[in-house]
Design a protein that fits this description.
The structure is a homodimer of 97-residue chains. The first copy, chain A, has 97 residues and is of the alpha+beta class. Chain A is built from five helices and three strands, in the order ααβααββα. Chain A has one domain: Orthogonal Bundle (Arc Repressor Mutant, subunit A), CATH 1.10.10. In chain A, strand 2 and strand 3 form a beta hairpin. At the A-B interface, helix 1, helix 2 and helix 5 of A face helix 1, helix 2 and helix 5 of B. Chain A binds a DNA duplex (30 and 30 nucleotides) through helix 3 and helix 4.
Chain lengths: 97, 97
Amino acid sequence: MDTIYEKQAKVFKAFCDEKRLQILELLRDGEKCACTLVYELDMAQSTLSYHMKILCESGIVDSRKDGKWTHYKISKEGSSFAVKLLKTLTTLNTAKE
Amino acid sequence: MDTIYEKQAKVFKAFCDEKRLQILELLRDGEKCACTLVYELDMAQSTLSYHMKILCESGIVDSRKDGKWTHYKISKEGSSFAVKLLKTLTTLNTAKE
DNA sequence: ACCTCATATCGAAAATACTTGATATGATCT
DNA sequence: AGATCATATCAAGTATTTTCGATATGAGGT
């Protein structure tokens, strides 16, 4: 069972690892296939798969299956949710809108 | 030596741990002394100190010494920098402003 | 100078996260 | 059906992070 804190932490785990930041940088060019990512990054295929799972669970990345391939892209909704959450977490309770 | 990715990750480490999210929640009520935080949270004094260091290094929290006491508060500049960075990391390169 | 209080740092143990080769799954092709 | 390719999952090792008691530092108070 996840606490509210664990759920919030999950969102930002996407940005807390060097490899995942590298992956996000590549995805800023647009949707990419896992095979492209594993080729462009210096990591084992199973390692990429591990990081992609974390990125998808954070909501920051969306995946799409197409036959043998899995395509990944940055999620607009997930990203704007993260921005909203980050603002909430750092806004004083007394502050009026 | 920190890579650019490590520097970016440092910012979001603030939000990746349950205890730090609890601390931030308390700080949303305004500036608080370390002794207040350690009293309100269920953790050893050395553990709080460890997390406060990470929060300060992320730029999200500012500290202020006052005699024996250390006061912590959420940093407006640090927070808005984090929001800006988060937006950058999730914005497609092709997207126009 | 000595004592106490608040906080930071150290060191070692415990808990988590990351990495990778091996294996499983599931799609496509012959 | 059998072979191959892309990806996911597993299991075990390695690395990093978190925790906490003990100790150090440094500000006040007596």
